[in-house]
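Issue 218. Parser rejects a valid record. Input:
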Amino acid sequence: MVATDAGYRDARTGDRLADGLRALTAHGKPAAVTESGCTTYRGAADVGGRGDAVIVWDDHARPVRFTSPVARDEQEQATYLCELIDILDDSAIDAAFVNTFARYDLPHSGTDDDRDFDRASFGVVKVLDGGRTGIAYPGLPWEPKAAFYALAQYGRSSIPTSSGSAAGSGGRATAVRDGAHPTA
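Output the parser choked on:
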């Protein structure tokens, strides 16, 4: 198996990513992308795997503050992942992993925008601060983001039907629009 954690597209590498992935599969061995994704703020797609660089960390690796103002944008993360999945599909990669499900060290604050460190998280769910639990999955300390629902939609559309073809969008990823989150 050939694997890479370089499954990020950003403004500098976007035009070369597909060629690099095709080269990874040219060996004739199974190929995997072990990390891909972006964080949850406007402009995060342009920095790809460096999206958490907007955080200042303390000596104990805890977030202190943002380096500059960032606006929460769950749709940017969802769209980025869907576009990346399409690129991965076209490249013949055998397996790909999204970075990551949850970042417990970067909680979402529903009341203090300066402490909403989830904006710098690659997680497809936002970890809730202060012992809060979610609504979509009661009792769990997180709530799905738009990317969670987009990935679920892609997964459902990729399940083969009895006729052998994929259901839904023909395997193409489609982003959830305007906050309309289907039941996952």
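Fixed in the parser; the record now loads. Residues 167-184 have pLDDT under 50 and may be disordered.
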